[in-house]
Amino acid sequence: MRYTHPEPAPSTVRVWPVFLPFAGCPHRCLFCAQDKQTGRTATDLDAILHALESDLRDALDQGRGPYELAFYGGTFTALPTPYPETFLSLAARFREAGLVTRVRCSTRPDCVAPDTLSRLRALGLDLVELGIQSFDDLALEASGRGYSGEAAKKGCALVREAGLALGIQLLPGLPGDRPGLFREDIRLAADLEPETARLYPCLVVRGTPLARAWERGEYVPWTTERAVTELAEALRVLWARRVRVIRMGLAPEETLDESVLAGPHHPALGQSARGLALLSLVREKVRELGGKPVSLTVPRRYSGELYGHAGELKPAYFELGLPETAVRFADGPDFVLRRA
Ligand code: SF4
Question: Which residues cross the membrane (predicted)?
Answer without folding.
Answer: none
